[in-house]
Amino acid sequence: MQSSTKQNDLIEQRSWTPQYHFYKPNHWINDPNGLFYLNGTYHLFFQLNPDDVVWGNMHWGHATSDDLINWQHQPIALYAEPEGLGYIFSGGAIVDKNNTSGFAKNGETPIVATFTQQSKDETQVQSIAYSLDEGKSFTVYEQNPVIPNPGLKDFRDPKVTWYEKGQFWIKTVVAGQCIHIYKSNDLKTWHKLSEFGHKIGAHGGVWECPDLFPLICSDTGTERWVLIISINPGGPNGGSATQYFIGDFDGANFVSQDEQIRWLDYGTDCYAGITWDNTPNIKHTRTYIAWMSNWQYANNTPDNAWRGAMTLPRTMYLKKAEQSYYLLTPSAVKLPQDTVRLQYCLSKEQPISVPEAYSLECDISLTQGNIALVWKNDCNEQFRLEIDADTQSVTADRTKAGFTDKGFDSVIKMPLSKHECTNLQLEIFVDECSIELFFNNGAHCITALVFPKQAFSQLHIDQSSKKESLENLKITKYIK
User: What strands lie across the sheet with 393-397, from one edge to the other?
Assistant: First the structure.
């Protein structure tokens, strides 16, 4: 672990403020909450400490966007009740189009937020609030909690979905290392249906932030249900991570298609993500966003001007593979069209000068050996991405990338099949403090924070022989 003196030296030398990722200046943020889309506007709520840049005193912050990349901060949406039911923890929100809740009296469309409250004695209960002005303001339901604590320490993160076949709402709530599934007709009165998670999936830590929803696979026309679960610790490369299950839901029970553990992102910095309610084409795709950090070091990242950011939004859709299904999660955004696209005549002997914030696309064909993309700066720091056909793996190494607090000095590993190595499409988003990697249109992802003393200004291509190829390299510079 770095000494506080070394960390302070880093802080004095540079700010790592994101250029095109969501964050809130001078505040701590974590989990995205209450995501909904209405009348052309995406609403992002999030865990917020309004008084500090470390975790605590949880409220719901609020921001809006019409393109998922340019965000406008809004007033705090939900305030903590320290002397009442407690602080406002994570949850979701839905657009109650048919006014099943009865909250609307004059033809409004209610937005119903569902969230956990934790009291001073750490009792967690499920509460709701509603908005009749498209999320600008919320009224806390007077008869909270709508689901009391059943005697569990970890009972949190409610997320609601409409069950079309039964014409009722379902709510998933984390209960230790499984989830409880509830049913309601009015979003106020809830009845427990079932549990999921016993002896299936990864269980290295507590489960958090469930999200259960249907998707229709465009290739087959078949509907499957997807369950996203965050876990902390227990990720494939240490600390926090997100797993997912695909299966069937009959209105009461969710059954996974198999017992395989599937990771949504192999990086260390994609956690607590959920999807937006009411987005266009929601039957075939979902739009997802996650907190870009890890509880191993989240309170200690070196920029005190802000702490906590979100991943880029991602589009989720199903693909068929033999007898099972899997998720693709490519980026849901492209850098703005008025950015500068730089197309290089690639020379593997000479480094490429790169801007501070940009996206990169390339194709890699690898039958044997390895090829690496290495980002470097003048401080002798580097971030190394290596694809190895012999070991059928990807390695993302940030141990020499500057900041190396506990858990941060990690080497991220991810498996790839032999076929994927021979035909690999790679899209990379580089920002001031992060690198997001999407392989084959989001079939695999790696998200990693980086805090170098200077921006990585050069990209080097290393290869083990002349049999590897990297082609069609395009870099799009981000300009605000």
Answer: 352-353, 458-463, 370-376, 382-388, 393-397, 411-415
CB contact at 8 A, 64 and 72: yes
Residues with catalytic function: 31
- 478: its two tokens: 């981000």
Q: What is the predicted pLDDT for the residue at 88?
A: 98
Q: What is the Cα–Cα distance from 227 to 240, expressed in whole angstroms?
A: 17
Rounded to an integer, what distance in angstroms lies between the CA atom of residue 23 and that of residue 149? 32
Q: Which residues contact 105 (CB under 8 A, 6 or more apart)?
A: none
Query: CB-based contacts of 466: which residues, under 8 Å, 6+ apart?
Result: none
3-state DSSP assignment of residue 4: helix
Structure tokens at 357: 């914030």
Class of residue 465 by CB neighbours under 10 A (exposed 0-12, middle 13-18, buried 19+): exposed
Q: Which of 287, 438, 467 is nearest to 360 (CA)?
A: 438
Token code pair at residue 432: 């001031």
Token pair belonging to 137: 């303001």
Q: What digits encode the pLDDT tens for the residues 374-431?
A: 999 999 999 999 999 999 999 999 999 999 887 899 899 999 999 999 999 999 999 9
Dihedral pair phi/psi, residue 13, rounded to 5°: -80, -30
Placement of tokens 């401080």 in the chain: 379
The predicted-structure confidence for 102-130, as pLDDT tens digits, reads as follows 999 999 999 999 999 999 999 999 999 99
Q: Cβ distance 254 to 194 under 8 Å?
A: yes
Q: Comparing C-alpha atoms, which of 343, 375, 368 is closest to residue 465?
A: 368
Q: How far is CA 112 from CA 76, 93, 317, in A?
A: 16, 5, 26
Write out pLDDT tens, residues 178-226.
999 999 999 999 999 999 999 999 999 999 999 999 999 999 999 999 9
| The pLDDT value given to residue 11 | 42
Instruction: Write the DSSP string, 253-319.
Output: -EEES-S--EES--SSS-EEEEE-BS-TTTTT-EEEEEE---TTTGGG-S-TT-B-BBPPPEEEEEE
Name residue, tokens 């190494």.
Answer: 397
For 418, the 3-state DSSP assignment is: helix
pTM listed for this prediction: 0.95
- Taking residue 281's Cβ as centre, other Cβ atoms within 10 Å add up to 12
DSSP category for residue 133 = S
The angle formed by the CA atoms of residues 379, 309 and 83, to the nearest 5 degrees, is 135
